[in-house]
Amino acid sequence: MPIKILMPALSPTMEEGNLARWLVKEGDTVSSGDVIAEIETDKATMEVEAVDEGTVGKILVAEGSEGVKVNEVIALLLEEGEDASSLDGAAKADAAPAKAEAPAKSEAPAKSESAAKSEPSAPAADQQAAPAKAPPAPASDKGERIFASPLARRLAAQDGLDLAAISGSGPHGRIVKRDVDEALKSGTGRKGAEAPKAAAADKPAAAAQAPKAAAPSGMADSQVLKLFEEGSYEVVPHDNMRKTIAKRLTESKQTVPHFYLTVDCELDALLALRAQLNDAAPKDKDGKPAYKLSVNDMVIKAHALALKAVPAANASWTDGGMLVHKHADVGVAVAIDGGLITPIIRRADEKTLSAISNEMKDLAGRARSRKLQPQEYQGGTTSVSNLGMFGIKDFAAVINPPHATILAVGAGEQRAVVKNGALAIATVMSVTLSTDHRAVDGALGAELMSAFRQFIENPMSMLV
User: Fold this and answer.
1) Which member of 172, 258, 327, 437 is catalytic?
2) Where are the domains of the chain?
3) Which residues of 159-187 are buried (b: 16+ CB within 10 A; e: fewer)?
């Protein structure tokens, strides 16, 4: 039976992607670990590796295809001893069960016949949903999808193994054949031994489930279009990035109780120290300095040190308990074509200003060319969004869950201030902290902002 190559989930939030390019063609021989395709996600273009070995029998989704659903069959791989005739057999074997499962699979009113005809990917999706020796999308008892190769799923089903109990060693943690072999040798993952536990766990989980109220929705497309004269606008289709941004930010504002704290920070001492450090940067033979610090680099460092000084604010809310993080991993908003992305400076509280500066330049450059890896923009414990370079005085940013805080940084500008009872001129920057009130209360947020201002106005403290 040919092995199905499925559209992979390259991040926990990925639901669909674009198949940018095939790096193999029909008839090519591939081994586990070979790069076979490039997939465009909502944030980056990533390489996809083969998890099984064999010969590419048939490519089902052409390169350049957009909106390919996760777990859709994109190609068929022939195993040793199989030939092209096996491909026809696989198609026939999948067709009948797919028809039988179609009514059960649908979760919404059926599409019209004309709409179904206009979607060339529907047959592939039906084949994927059809029952076979290896179910295409196994899930754990908690409902989480398990990533496993078709061969591993087939072998696990034959030997009565529970994939949820097996750790994957393949790309992105996927379970492959060798993991199933190891499980057989060690005796782990036997379904019979786990069944009573699973049944007991399911009962409280089912009892805890309650119907959720439907989220409020905005105006329908047809209602919006009626407000404008036909021909007075152009409809630009949303790409995956824009859809993801819209979904996540809407969820954030609907589910996270935001509140905001704003402070003004004097920058004169920081600007003087920055100039001194940049002048002292060693240069290579071409005269290029080893680093060039920006105000934003120093903001990142100050925010990370403030979280270290006020560790209770370095948290994430979950229903089961508060996650209090041990390190300050700061995501930094970077504007790119069609949206934004937040690459993360890991352990920013432990890094020097020069290390933060050079790492930020590298991450921002690769972000704009969509070459970041998922681990470089997923996670983090807080975020910084800086619009000061655009002359914005102050603004409030939307929290990016599971973060509990995001710092919105405005422009530094000369303002009249009162010092020792007399008017003076100082360079002042307004900074607003958006906070998840479930995790960070008002007094705690104020303590964090006070610590941040101390580091900004006494920048030498960031060097010791």
Assistant:
1) 437
2) 3-133, 150-247, 257-462
3) eebbbbbbebebbeebbbbebbeebeeee
Mean predicted lDDT score pLDDT of the chain: 82
Find where tokens 């300095």 sit: 289
What's the DSSP call for residue 238?
-
The answer to whether 437 is a known catalytic residue is: yes
Give 251's contacts (C-beta < 8 A, 6+ positions apart): 401
State how far Cα 266 lies from the chain centre.
35
Q: Is the pTM of this model over 0.70?
A: no
Contact 299, 270 (CB under 8 A): no
Residue 431, pLDDT score: 98
pLDDT recorded at residue 348: 97
Among 417, 421, 419, residue whose Cα is nearest residue 430 = 417
The yes-or-no verdict on residue 437 having pLDDT over 90 is: yes
| Two tokens, residue 26 | 């029909």
Helix residue spans in 325-373 (DSSP H): 353-368
CA distance 54 to 307: 51
User: Which CATH number describes the domain made up of 257-462?
Assistant: 3.30.559.10
Segment 442-460 shows an average pLDDT of 97
CATH class of 3-133: mainly beta
The total of other beta-carbon atoms located within 10 Å of residue 230's CB is 7
Mean pLDDT check: name the lowest of 6-10, 111-115, 346-350.
111-115
Intrachain domains 3-133 and 257-462 with the same fold:
no
Dihedral-angle region of residue 64 (phi above 0 means left; psi in -120 to 50 means alpha; beta otherwise): left
138-160 tens-digit pLDDT? 555 555 567 777 677 777 877 78
Is residue 424 scored above 90 in pLDDT? yes
What is the predicted pLDDT for the residue at 215?
57
Q: Which neighbouring-strand residues pair with 190?
A: 161
